[in-house]
Amino acid sequence: MTNLKENVPWWVKIGAKIILARLPIPYRWWKRVGLFEHGDMNQSQQAWETFLEHARTADVVDWESAKIRFKIRGDEYTVLEIGPGDSLFTAIIAKSLGASRTWLVDVGSFATMALQPYAEFVDYLRSQGLSAPLMVHSESLIDLLKECRAEFLGGGVSSLAHLPSKSVDYCFSNAVLEHIPKADFAQFTLDLYRIMKPEGVSVHRIDLRDHLESGLNNLRFTEAIWEGPLFRKSGFYTNRMRFSELVELFGRAEFACRFPRVLRWDVLPIPRAKLDEAFRYLADDDLLIKGFDVVLTRR
After folding, report:
1. Minimal CA–CA distance to 170: which of 243, 76, 273?
2. What's the sign of the alpha-carbon dihedral 97, 44, 6, 234?
3. Cβ-count burial of 29 within 10 angstroms (0-12 exposed, 13-18 middle, 19+ buried)?
4. Is it the case that residue 40 has pLDDT exceeding 80?
5. Domain count of the fold of the chain
């Protein structure tokens, strides 16, 4: 299936996803056949290594202790993941590292509800030397979330409005922010700033490539077409904001930004003449950035 998807032209993928997204078929079936996937955080090793990579970038874990733990400054430590996707493994990781509360925010319920993958993940974490939850009283995913003192919020980034101000110590996302609708992004940055504790830290990996051929084919289209419901609700939408625009919005929200990882193309993956006019005259420095990590702290 992977090789097949790689060989399908971007424009065929758009047409196919527009049609398929409107069929009355549940997400879990699309996941099984490899379409409309929401990340790979349902794989134990991948989920753990991805979490650790961002935690290292944010410098939120004490690696010197006998068992790795969050750097907890007070009586509690809170974690927020934006876009957990196909699993809620982060709830287990956060509890294992000493978090007192965890929130998981997504635009829908994509995570597997079966307990077996979570039990296997607990075993995996124990093999890594962590004191993972016992799951003795967990007969459902809801029970497991309660054991981990975790809460799932399925209203997308608007769910941040329900979190108390200055309540989050550590927030992270992995290739998620590019999917936040462009019209909602400025408010998202303001809400994120409001809920972060004064000494809190937020780290995000942002993929600026199209999610069709990992190029810039999404920049071919006008704003009216790309932001219209036909494209926005078909499983390939990204907000198309470039590096400079994102940095400006983070700055307006009063975040200080650090960029430990910036990936660039050597040459543009598409001729400028093929781009919509809104992007055609952007500087090379902006268009050549295909992804980056950003660490956000309150000023």
Report:
1. 76
2. negative
3. exposed
4. no
5. 1
